[in-house]
């Protein structure tokens, strides 16, 4: 099932930019990034500090569907910790269960 994705709204080099998040990706504790737009295509490569990471999945998810596994993939222990982290980065942003985000899953390139 290869559904057609809408056009990207940003470029992959903007997917993971905060130093703390980059460190989590490099350490292997962050394997997904949620954004309110689509930043990458499946198979696209992201470069972080000389390391390459390939996007393996891109799909939409509502915030209310987030699981502990999703939070861990984002480099956090709990959904609440992940939510608090996002809200600290985006002051004034509402956290609405029905709000849809784009999930970008990636892994270190071989």
Overall pLDDT metric: 95
CATH class: Alpha Beta
How many domains, in number, for the residues?
1
CATH topology: the name is Sulfate adenylyltransferase
CATH superfamily: Sulfate adenylyltransferase
Q: How many E strands?
A: 4
Which CATH architecture? Roll
Give the helix/strand class: alpha+beta
> Helix share of residues?
10-25%
Q: What's the total helix number?
A: 3
Sheet with the most strands: spatial strand order: 1-4-3-2
| Residue share in β-strands | 25-35%
Largest sheet: 4 strands, antiparallel
Global outline = globular
Low-confidence stretches: none
Radius of gyration: 13 Å
User: In whole angstroms, how far apart are the ends?
Assistant: 25 Å
Output the helix-strand order: HEEEHHE
Organism: Paenibacillus alba
InterPro entries: PUA-like_sf
Protein name: ASCH domain-containing protein
């Amino acid at each position: 099932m290869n559904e057609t994705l809408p056009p990207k709204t940003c470029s992959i080099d903007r997917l993971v930019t905060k130093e703390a998040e980059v460190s989590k990706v490099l350490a292997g504790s962050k394997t997904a990034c949620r954004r309110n737009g689509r930043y990458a295509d499946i198979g696209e490569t992201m470069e972080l500090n000389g390391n390459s990471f390939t996007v393996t999945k891109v799909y939409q998810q509502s915030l209310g569907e987030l699981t502990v596994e999703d939070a861990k993939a984002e480099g956090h222990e709990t959904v609440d910790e992940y939510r608090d982290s996002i809200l600290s980065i985006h002051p004034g942003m509402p956290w609405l269960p029905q709000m849809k985000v784009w999930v970008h899953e990636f892994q270190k390139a071989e």
